[in-house]
Amino acid sequence: MDHLSGGDILIRALKDAKVKYIWGYPGGAALHIYDAIYRQEDVIHLLVRHEQAAVHAADGFSRTTGEVGTALVTSGPGATNAITGIATAFMDSIPLVVISGQVPSKKIGTDAFQETDMVGVSRPIVKHSFLITKTEDIAPTIAKAYFIASTGRPGPVVVDIPKDVTEPNRKVPYKFPDQVRLRSYQPVLKGHQGQIKRAANMLVSSERPIIYAGGGVIIDNASEYLTLLARKLNAPVTNTLMGLGAFPGTDPQFLGMLGMHGTYEANSAMHHADVVFAVGARFDDRVTNEIDKFCPKAKIIHIDIDPTSVSKNVAADIPIVGKCSIVLKSMLDYIKSEDLVVDDTRLSRWWSQINEWRDLHGIYSKSRYEPSKLSLIKPQDVIKAVYEVTKGDAIVTSDVGQHQMFAAQYYLFDKPRRWINSGGLGTMGFGLPAAMGAKLAEPETEVVCVTGEGSIQMCIQELSTCTQHKLPIKIVNLNNSALGMVRQWQDMQYSGRYAQSLYEDSLPDFVALAEAYGHLGVKITEYDDMQCQLEKYFAYKDKTVFIDICVDKSEHVYPMQIPGGAMRDLWVSKTEKT
Amino acid sequence: MRRIISILLENEFGALSRVVGLFAQRGYNIDSLTVAPTDDETLSRITLTTNGDDKMVEQIIKQLYKLIDTLKVMELTEGAHVERGLMLIKIRSQDLAERGEIKSCVEIFRGSIVDITSKTYTIQLVGDAEKLDAFLEATMHLDVVEVVRSGISGISRGDKYLKV
Lengths: 578, 164
Hints:
The structure holds 2 protein chains of 2 kinds. Chain A has 3 domains: about 5-175, 3-Layer(aba) Sandwich (Rossmann fold), CATH 3.40.50.970; about 195-360, 3-Layer(aba) Sandwich (Rossmann fold), CATH 3.40.50; about 380-555, Rossmann fold. Helix content of chain A is about 35%, strand content about 15%. Chain A contains 20 helices and 22 strands. Chain A is globular. The mean pLDDT of chain A is about 95. By secondary structure, chain B is of the alpha+beta class. Chain B has 4 helices and 9 strands. The interface of A and B includes residues 129 and 131 of A. Chain B: Its EC number is 2.2.1.6. Chain B: One of its GO terms (biological process) is isoleucine biosynthetic process.
């Protein structure tokens, strides 16, 4: 048995936990750990420019691969800078292990230099946290951290390590546990068979079913079963913002996203459905609109790994706690074994109703906004052009705001793990570092960060990280010189009083900025020029390119749910509501 | 509605703060709280009282289960149970008749006087919340100078138990 120091034990344990990459930033309390990283080659460390980005990058890596992402930060400001990243991952159930250095044990509680109670500060936004108090505990704690982060409903786990625990001169035997068992933590996997049968029967005999699938389907790699079941049931499918790609975006059964900026057909179908089949979704307030008016005629079937999500906002008629993949498979098996078939004539009435909605206000049946012309480029058209240039097969990360919604609406994701955004927390600054994580995970795949001039400036320092680690990302900046979504709300609810949402003449020259970091940059102002410029710059496979596109400043995101209404109550344009 | 919730959890660093934090961050109140290790020192037992409707309690119990350290959760008020709290009260009195009244009050409530000075009585009382409240009401007109109440400890009656 090897005798190792705490720092070496930590890195060896990470390797044994199958960690290949750590995103991080060194500092005093983490230096023993950094020295251990320096003295080995199995685990690769990527230096970022801000700890928030380290966590977002680990998060983007995890969302792309399904593996646990890892970040390493120092104590105090390093730890607190990581908080936004941790909260982002927590809200979207992304498995991460965030390791933070801590001041030496003896100094804890003395207001020492760079001391923060990381376990305390992070407590409401982690799945679990550990403060390691002795060197012997490092390996078993790391094993537990990865186990907890990746199982059940995944989430971030913080491991806080006081500096003395990684002291180079204190060596202890190294042993990584073969398996982890926690008597207090045994997530339910299979789902109740009786409930599964009831749900299948209810779905097969329903007249107006709809499948409402969320991020849980993607996290659990259950898209294949979901797609099979949807085909079997001939039911329409809508995805949440987090669920895009769980069901193919170009499939005729797909109604688009639902919720606040969801399509008219998805929101109307939800409202009129007799059975809502929620899979790995959590009835978020950005989906349901006014909860008392939510799906008045529907029976609710709800599959979720997390019992607290079931009947939290909307009572489920058939709750099923379990892994989406396992439950969906059981449901398919049951339907097959009982030879259950749907009545297609009954469903054809439902489909003809849905197709009427599609024609009436659908954003895919025809264009619902004024066409782009000359120097008036519509942001929607930018997304459509990016979709074409990347053949619909890029990994698209986004920040938060109008550009995020346009990307969610107009980039049709046919595969899971292609759409990476901060859905729950809504973190501006997420897009670029998440794209770095995605590019590291899939170097052969085109990675596009769709952003705005507001969001990109929240983590723009990471352009330097892209240079250092050779991560060629395409940044598509929908530049409308304003905080677009804030301004949209100010237009709609504050009579156009643009309180602090305009940049006036303060924006940087993004092309020059990108070049300063060693990247390429291009500014696009003419619509006729856009497609060929995009093609030209996307062809630079080995370069990070900052594509700054001046878009129509007055454009709003539609549809938009009317506050206080039912799901189907929407503004479909500036002047028209349903 | 008043609820008594019993929780069995790992006796680990930070476990209590997670339970307390859960109540704070979800906007639930803790009316009283008792916590101590059990006969098995790796386990802690928490008894807490809160107020809420069925939906809220269902959500609280699920959220408590979601904490990694939690082993078992039970709502004691759902079934027959025994609950006990401890109260220590200090009453000032130098009037002989009044001191007699205090003594008889303590007897009626099956409490005990645990300390006496010429000016004060210190009284110990054990019982459910209702009984302790009743004693306070009965002595309201006196010069009560200090009241210390423990949280409630509770256990279910009969063949029902919270155990790993």
